[in-house]
Amino acid sequence: PVVPNFGGGLSCVQSVMSGACGCGSERFSAHTHDTGAVRVSDAVGAWAPGYTWTQQEDSITITFETAANKTVVDVGLVFAQHEIRAHVEGEDPRVVGTLHHAVLPSECTWLLEKRMGYSLVEIHLQKSVPISWPYPIKEDAADGTPMDPQSELELARHYESAGNLESALEHTHKSAGKGGAAAMLLLGKLFQMGPKSPYRLPQDLDKAMLYYSQAAALGSVEATYLRGALHQEQGRHADAVASFLNAVSDQAIAAARALDRTRKALPQYIVTSYFNLGIIYQDGSKDVPVNYEETIKWWTLAANEQFAPALYNLGVVYLNGQGTPKDEAKAQMLFERAHKLNSKLQIPVRRAPAPAPASKTPKAATAIPAAVGTPVLHPPAEPALPAGQTPLARYQSPVEHTPSPAPEEGSLWSSALFVGAIAVGLMVFGKMPWR
Questions:
Q1: What is the helix (H) or strand (E) element at residue 303, kind and residue range?
Q2: DSSP symbols for 167-228
Q3: Are the beta carbons of 255 and 266 closer than 8 angstroms?
Q4: Three-point CA angle 83, 89, 94, nearest 5°
């Protein structure tokens, strides 16, 4: 059935264009808006998981995305004074549980909008009392039906902002246990950070890898990237390449863009995946041979996203003629672009060779060495360079945790807000070692 029978005198609101609600209660009309050509997306996860919510003094608005081919007949909503149950045919329950405070079921409505590549469900809850809500769902439904993973994560965010890290961690684990990819991603980061995070968990890279792998299997592109970075840190370069290639696939990019449709630039973890692939093919290893063509390909993609280390390293490639004809003019242009984006990346100065004895043929100026960099958390020591050579920047991709901000009326709470507080793959150039 489109709307399941949960019993208990619930007031059911079903979004249909005609006909009566199957449970016999009053039907509220909802509207479908076409905003352009709509297609069923070929990309897995091209719509964002979880939900977001905002509030006004007298109302709560919850929105979530679903596949482009879903229509109003695929969506079921049930409102009660203290409960909400929202599901989409063929998907896990989207919003389920006991509301933080009572609502007026007869004044609660919802609609479905067709967007480019996805459908958007928007739910409006009318508060019975105009008070601020710190989170939308406070516990399981009255009949024991578990709350959804996103609501568990919203509770975790609330407890973290209140300083109750024990409860925050408890609800994060509950969200992960219910299949919440965002919670799995967060737990992976916390176990990778270990005592460096506010949660002071013991570092456990095996658990971090497990959570990253589980989240990646559910479509988390950031988890796919972090799994690759962890593989690389541990010397499994072939596995790292496989993870990074998954992170930069067309499907992954579509899924990543779905998390923030207002952002035009690619997420940092995708750009860093480009850069890391270039590093792996540049350095070579026993399981991934050196391939300068691949190095240039991936660094060019990262450079196209204005990633300064990639621009700089491409400058070195063209200056040395490594896998491509030498082009000092292009190298100089790339160095200048990199320096403009990050002043720590100094434009190399070619040193004149030492005067040669009159009886010998003078040697050419020493070229800048091949690019050296690392995406891992603990970069190995940089090898000593011959006199007169200029080393390149190492790029360090840290895992950091920033506490969630305090709740604020009218603000938007989502998995991105809680998990987005964990900044991974950010360009923290202040942590890059230089010579």
A1: helix 292-304
A2: HHHHHHHHHHHTT-HHHHHHHHHHHHHGGGSTT-PPP-HHHHHHHHHHHHHTT-HHHHHHHH
A3: no
A4: 40
- Quote the pLDDT of residue 382: 36
Q: How confident is the model at residue 292, as a pLDDT?
A: 95
SS3 (DSSP) at 115: strand
The residues, any chain, with a CB within 8 Å of residue 199's CB and separated by 6 or more, are 165, 168, 169, 190, 401
Give exposure, 133-162, as e/b (b: 16+ Cβ within 10 Å).
bbbbbbebbeeeebbbbbbbbbbbbbbbbe
What value, to the nearest 5°, has the Cα angle with vertex 12 and ends 9 and 16? 160
The pLDDT, as a whole number, for residue 358 is 57
Would you say residue 45 has pLDDT above 80?
no
SS3 78: strand
Which residue has better confidence, 203 or 2? 203
Phi, psi of 86 (to 5 degrees): -130, 130
Torsion angle of C-alpha atoms 170, 172, 174, 180, degrees rounded to 10: 180
Of 211, 218, 163, the C-alpha closest to 189 is 211
Please tell me the predicted confidence (pLDDT) of residue 387.
39
Task: Enumerate the β-bridge partners of residue 393.
Answer: none
Q: Is the pLDDT of residue 392 over 50?
A: no
The DSSP string of 246-289 is HHTSHHHHHHHHHH-TT--SPPHHHHHHHHHHHHHHHH--SSS-
Contact 359, 368 (CB under 8 A): no
- The pLDDT assigned to 175 comes to 96
Position 169, amino acid:
L
Q: What's the rounded Cα separation, in Å, for the pair 394 and 186?
A: 26
Structure tokens at 67: 């596949």
Q: What is the pTM of this model?
A: 0.73
Count the helices and strands in the chain (H runs, E runs). Answer: 12, 11
326 close to 320: Cβ distance less than 8 angstroms = yes
Structure token pair of residue 221: 């592109």
- Tell which residue, 93, 89, 76, 70, has the closest CA to residue 10: 76
**How far, CA to CA in Å, does 415 sit from each of 50, 151, 161, 349, 429?**
7, 9, 14, 47, 27
**Cα gap 13→204, rounded to integer Å:** 47
**In sequence order, what are the residues at sequence separation of 6 or more whose Cβ sits closer than 8 angstroms to the Cβ of residue 18?**
none
